[in-house]
């Protein structure tokens, strides 16, 4: 099993900033991608941002220009810097990691989620 430990969630006022971090640990061959997703009650979990091997990033349209994702390859961590937060950013944020568990098998793991609440 790949363990994903999230930190940085909390309560912030609209216009403020928050920084989420996720660290991957365990026995695995490698990590192809790490990212952040979010989910609100009654809606599907959606991609916020991810970063793949080679440094390519993807962002949801709603967060482009406000959020920045980065990865520390040596520490197997991914960070989401969230600026200019809006109340609609309120959600449970989940860290995701996927890649080869072994040479023959793949994994796709999720963190337990961290609550981000943006007040108006």
Report strand %. Answer: over 45%
Structural class: mainly beta
Number of strands: 11
| Rg value | 14 Å
The N- and C-terminal alpha carbons lie at a distance of 39 Å
Number of helices: 0
Give the helix level as a range of percent.
under 10%
In this structure, how is the largest beta sheet organized? 7 strands, mixed
- State the low-pLDDT regions, or none: none
Tell me, rounded to a whole number, the average pLDDT: 96
Overall 3D form: elongated
Q: List the secondary-structure elements in sequence, H or E.
A: EEEEEEEEEEE
Task: Write structural notes for this entry.
The model has no long low-confidence stretch (mean pLDDT 96). The protein has no helices and 11 strands. 0% of the residues lie in helices and 57% in strands. The strands form 2 sheets. Strands 2, 4, 5, 6, 9, 10 and 11 form a 7-stranded mixed sheet that branches. A 4-stranded antiparallel sheet has the order 1-3-8-7, with no helix packed on it. The protein is an all-beta fold.
Protein traits:
120 residues, mainly beta, seven-stranded mixed beta sheet, 11 strands, 57% strand
Please render the helix and strand layout as text:
Layout: E1 2-7, E2 10-13, E3 18-26, E4 33-39, E5 46-52, E6 57-59, E7 67-72, E8 77-82, E9 91-100, E10 106-110, E11 114-119
Parallel strand pairs: 2-11
Antiparallel strand pairs: 1-3, 3-8, 4-5, 4-9, 5-6, 7-8, 9-10, 9-11
Summarize the structure.
This protein has 120 residues and is mainly beta. Helix content is 0%, strand content 57%.
């Amino acid at each position: 099993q790949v363990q994903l430990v999230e930190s940085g969630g909390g309560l912030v006022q609209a216009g403020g900033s928050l920084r989420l971090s996720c660290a991957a640990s365990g026995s695995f061959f490698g990590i192809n991608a790490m990212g952040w997703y979010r989910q609100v009650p009654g809606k599907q979990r959606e991609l916020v941002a991810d970063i793949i091997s080679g440094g390519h990033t993807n962002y949801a349209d709603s967060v482009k220009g406000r959020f920045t994702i980065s990865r520390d390859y040596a520490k197997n961590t991914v960070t989401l810097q969230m600026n200019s937060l809006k109340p609609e950013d309120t959600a449970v944020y989940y860290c995701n990691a996927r890649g080869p568990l072994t040479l023959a098998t793949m994994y796709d793991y999720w963190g337990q989620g961290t609550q981000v609440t943006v007040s108006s």
